[in-house]
Design a protein that fits this description.
Strand content: 5-15%
Radius of gyration: 41 Å
Subcellular location: Cell outer membrane
Structural class: alpha+beta
Function: Part of the Tol-Pal system, which plays a role in outer membrane invagination during cell division and is important for maintaining outer membrane integrity.
Keywords: Cell cycle, Cell division, Cell outer membrane, Lipoprotein, Membrane, Palmitate, Signal
Helix content: 55-70%
Membrane topology: Lipid-anchor
Order of helices and strands: HHEHEHEHE
Family: Belongs to the Pal lipoprotein family.
Number of strands: 4
Strand order of the largest sheet: 1-4-2-3
Number of helices: 5
Length: 188
């Protein structure tokens, strides 16, 4: 009888133990499936972000295509030609510090492009004798030349010419017109 009770207990316990074992296996499988789904979702998000980054690089390439060195030089030269004036005070040839940036840009361009040359024109207003204005225009042009030479530009890249009062940009006799005519011009 004792054996019969043990046997009955096993018959009842075995299905319960089996059920419990299956239930814990199902939980492990469910946990593993959930973890795999989470990893797959994270990977999908990472892949999407990587694709967006690649797409944005392609779009950026469309906006700013690579330029050849010749095209780059031409673009730099056009920018410099829009900023080529240095103005001087009355009867002075010293360069004001506000023009150092302009001249530094020109110097950097000329150092980088050793085959390029520049002519520095010196100009004056109409006050003073023609001889005096020619000499002052030359002194102004040479001031700009000295600045560029000190910035590393080769002397063979620079020429100087003085027009004195011969080529005014404003023919009026006002102080504003005189100020416009007292200039150095960098011409490529």
């Amino acid at each position: 009888m004792q054996l019969n009770k043990i046997f009955k207990g096993l018959v009842i316990a075995l299905p319960v133990v089996t059920m419990m074992a299956c239930t814990s296996t199902d939980d492990s499988a469910a946990n593993a499936a959930t973890e795999n789904a989470r990893i797959a979702q994270e990977q999908a998000v990472a892949d999407r972000k990587a694709q967006e980054a690649r797409d944005s690089m392609v779009e950026a390439g469309k906006v700013a295509p690579m330029m050849t060195p010749a095209e780059e030089m031409k673009q730099e030269l056009m920018a410099l030609e829009n900023n080529q004036l240095v103005y001087f005070d009355f009867d002075r040839a010293g360069i004001s510090s506000k023009y150092y940036g302009v001249l530094d840009q020109h110097a950097a361009f000329l150092v980088k492009n050793s085959g390029q040359s520049v002519v520095i024109e010196g100009h004056c207003d109409s006050r003073g004798t023609p001889e005096y204005n020619i000499a002052l225009g030359e002194t102004r042009a040479k001031s700009v030349q000295t600045y560029l030479l000190n910035a590393g530009v080769s002397p063979s890249q620079i020429s100087v010419v003085s027009y004195g009062e011969e080529k005014p940009v404003n023919n009026s006799s006002s102080e504003a017109a005189f100020a416009e005519n007292r200039r150095g011009v960098l011409v490529y």
